[in-house]
Design brief:
- The structure is a single chain.
- The protein is α/β, with parallel strands linked by helices.
- The strands form two sheets. A six-stranded mixed beta sheet has the order 6-7-8-3-9-10, sandwiched between helices.
- Helix 3 runs parallel beside helix 5 and helix 4 crosses helix 5.
- The termini are far apart.
């Protein structure tokens, strides 16, 4: 099943002599259960493409479909609602609220999506699944970088999105924490069938990828499928284990 489809998507900034074609005529399909990485040099269009898929920016030309629905002509309010319902985001800088506990940071994602009923309970249930059992009441400054990124992962997943977008998720982590966070996301992909799309320069992320889409100068130059998308095979009571120190 296609989670996301891009048909002839081009994004242009500026006009005339200042015109920049950030991405050019991209045709791409992201299937359910994929663990896919966008790779390429700086300026290749990775972040621009990620923003298109995440409905954070509209194409200059072409069409994006998310879960079978065209985003063409949607208002900012409609796009915001679509993002809240369908997409979870993980950022390299974690973007946690310093004064909120881990539980409250995760709960906030549901509140912003207009799903306050049961939000606290859902957040409490989500944190142990990413290895943060017992740390629910700690604030970000009481957590390691790896633990903060796990809170960010929990925040992205608590909405049960169709797609999780991660922009350089290991950029601010050391090697050990980065590897453990990647292993966690891969386990979530394999056990729950969660669809992940990354943008990265990190070879560690590439090593975990099931599919790598290489970009240069705003175009897809290679699309390498290493393994088929993960299938949902979660067993009752199974959850990712281990915590990042």
């Amino acid at each position: 099943m296609a989670i996301c489809e891009l048909h002839g998507v081009t994004k242009t900034y500026g006009t005339g002599a200042t015109r920049v074609d950030a991405i050019q005529v991209i045709d791409l399909i992201i299937e359910a259960g994929e663990f896919t990485v966008l790779s390429g040099p700086s300026g290749s269009g990775k972040t621009t493409l990620l923003n298109q898929v995440g409905c954070l920016d509209a194409p200059s030309e072409g069409e994006l479909l998310l879960d079978g629905r065209s985003t063409r002509g949607l208002t900012s309010r409609q796009l915001s609602h679509l993002r809240g319902e369908k997409i979870g985001f993980i950022f390299q800088s974690f973007n946690l609220i310093p004064v909120l506990t881990a539980t409250e940071n995760v709960e906030l994602a549901l509140q912003l999506a207009g799903r306050s009923d049961g939000a606290h309970e859902a957040a409490l249930a989500m944190l142990p699944q990413v290895g943060l059992g017992g740390l629910e009441h700690r604030r970000p400054n009481e957590l390691s970088g790896g633990q903060q990124q796990r809170v960010a992962i929990a925040r992205a997943l608590v909405k049960k999105p169709l797609l999780v977008i991660a922009d350089e998720p290991t950029a601010n982590l050391d090697s050990a924490n980065g590897e453990q966070v990647l292993s966690l996301m891969q386990e979530l992909n394999e056990s729950l069938g969660i669809t992940f799309l990354f943008s990265t320069h990190d070879p560690r992320v590439l090593a975990h990828a099931r599919r790598v889409i290489y970009l240069e100068d705003g175009r897809v130059v290679r699309d390498e499928v290493r393994q088929p998308p993960a299938t949902r095979r979660r067993q009752s009571g199974t959850r990712p284990s281990g915590e990042v120190a």
